[in-house]
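Q: Here's a chain of 258 amino acids. Please give me its 3D structure as tokens.
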Amino acid sequence: MRPGAALWMVWTAAVTQARMQGLNPGMIVLGIIQPAVFLAITLRTAERLDTATTQRITVAVVLTVLWNTTIWVAGGILRGEVRGGTLAANLTGAHPGYLILFGKCLGALSHAAVVIVGSTAATLLVTRTPVRVERPGWALVGAVVALLSGTVLGTLLACLFIRTHYGTQLSGVLMYPIYLVGGMLIPPDVLPEPVERFSALISLRWANAFITHAVGGSVRPGELTVLCGLTLGYAVAAVWLFGRVTHNARSEGRLVLD
């Protein structure tokens, strides 16, 4: 498939999914209530609320909620495909199904990111907590790459959910441990060494570090490089796993492993 056609397919799927999202109950809880509660509690319980701490907490809350939303989006898109009867067609169609799935995850997460950032900004205004962004351009670059990384993660998780009967349980298992070892709300340097090494494999940890430093005024290309490298690794894994799912669907007539 030509690059232009592939980009158009991703764009069409993203726009369609974003329009379908709306402010449903799940988005209200995850995108509006959760960041406001996380931010208010974390700011209030911080030992020292200086500029650097406020910047770090704000970025960490946004990315933590983005992770929660990634889990929810991955499962929600698949449930919608099953209800609409389009899952098998997308998996076995003539066009690469992973592009459609990626586009839908991108549209859903982009919509969610706007809601999350809006809720976070409103909470900062209500609590009269100023946050100064010293390097807005680089912070935006980090945010875009973080969004793409979350989208790739959502695509990978969706493929995992397809291949198991226990998608709901798996989503719960994946969601909450990241709070502890993801290097966002809890800084990685306070984690035990084995856990800290594991957290280095989580792309949002590096997104958190890069964006926080950019907001504070310093740019660290190494963190952005690791973020991009991990995202590329997730993408390779997602394409490979999607290929396995498609193979099962075409050759064995099933989507879920027995």
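Q: Can you summarize the key feature?
A: The longest helix spans residues 51-84.
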